Amino acid sequence: MPVSPAIWIGMLCAAVSCLLGLVVLRRLSLMAGQGTDADLLGRLCVMVERETAARVAENEVQRARMAEIERALATRLDQRHQEMTETFNRIARMMGRDLSEMRVAQSESLREMAEEGRRQSDALRAAVNERLHQAVEKQMQTSFQRVLEQIGAMQKAMGEVSAMTAQVGDLKRLFANVKTRGGWGEAQLRSILDDVLPEGAYETNRRLRDDSREVVEFAVRMPVRATVPPVLAIDSKFPTEAYERLLQAVEDCNPDAERAARRALETTLRIEARKIATKYIVPPVTVEFAVLYLPTDGLYAEVARIPGLLDEIGRTYRVIVMGPGLMPAMLRTIHLGYVTLALEKRTDDIARLLGATRQEMLRMDGVLEKLARNASAISSSIDEARRRTGLVTRRLRELDVDSEPASPPSGGAAQGEMAPAWMEGGSDGTHG
Questions:
Q1: Measured between alpha carbons, how far is 132 from 122 in angstroms, rounded to an integer?
Q2: How far apart are CA 317 and CA 424, in angstroms?
Q3: What distance in Å separates the CA atoms of residue 214 and residue 232, rounded to the nearest whole number?
Q4: How far is CA 311 from the centre of its chain?
Q5: CA separation for the pair 416, 411 (Å, rounded)
Q6: Which residue has the higher pLDDT, 247 or 29?
Q7: C-beta atoms surrounding 245 within 10 Å
Q8: Are 232 and 285 spatial neighbours (Cβ–Cβ below 8 Å)?
Q9: What pLDDT does residue 346 have?
């Protein structure tokens, strides 16, 4: 068992007391050597020994007491440890029992919920079956009447279907001709161009090279600021043979034939794209790319379904494949470019008009400045004339004042009547 710090402190105090006693004895011995009393030295030694013995005994008692306290504390700690262990075990048993009870209660609740859900689903199924039975009976009654009506309509439609079959046969024979098929695709593309682009925005059957007789079906002028704007070449292609073989293979559920038809369609598209790139991409007469138009969305969907074909054609041959659904979007972009170009031209016209207006305003400012100078000169002339008129008026007034005392009173009226008219006017002018 480790020694308590209090015991170490007691032992340290005893050692210090012994040391002090020895120091005192040493001093007394020195003093005895000088002639001090020997009895006094002996008594002091006895007292030191007694004190040391008492200190040692007290230290032993303290050590025994501390040992008993340590044993009591160890016993108490063991008891506390046992109590805590028992408490933890009891809590663990209680928690395990509670968890088991909760698990049992939860399983009971889940079982009750499952039974309740089963009962509700059975009731719902019975109600649904009953309503479905009623609805089916009602529907059957009305359906028989409708069937009878539709049979008559079907007989009427059979005749129309026969006529339509004949028309479809005629359409197949029409599309069997390559030239007729190409003309149909060209007409469809022309209709889209007319609907979206402004008048005069494209040319038909234009020759792009002077040393070649090849003509492109449609050449769309691009909306750029140039004396001779470049054109976008658009050519319509309709490879119906490969497309029809592909549709037939899909309908027959023949994977081998479908793969062969897709490869044939892919090869046909590559060949046509190469031809367009060779014939119709002629910078700077044309832009850096061209458009291959497919007349049906179904054909375009099958081409787009081939992995990487459209990207490879665009990257290798600089040809964009378009269908009826995408072509108007691209043409609207070009039309927006025309609108932007017209706005820019209008802006330039407005800028020129503003410049001309500014020049006219500068000229008008010069004219107004001349008018201001002339007006100031006229104003000074008018002031000079008024000044001279005032002088003449004052002279005339002086003449009137000088002539009044010399005339007789009776003759004033006669002289006034004989006065010149200009003098009267001058007199009036002074008052005025």
A1: 15
A2: 109
A3: 15
A4: 27
A5: 8
A6: 247
A7: 17
A8: no
A9: 81
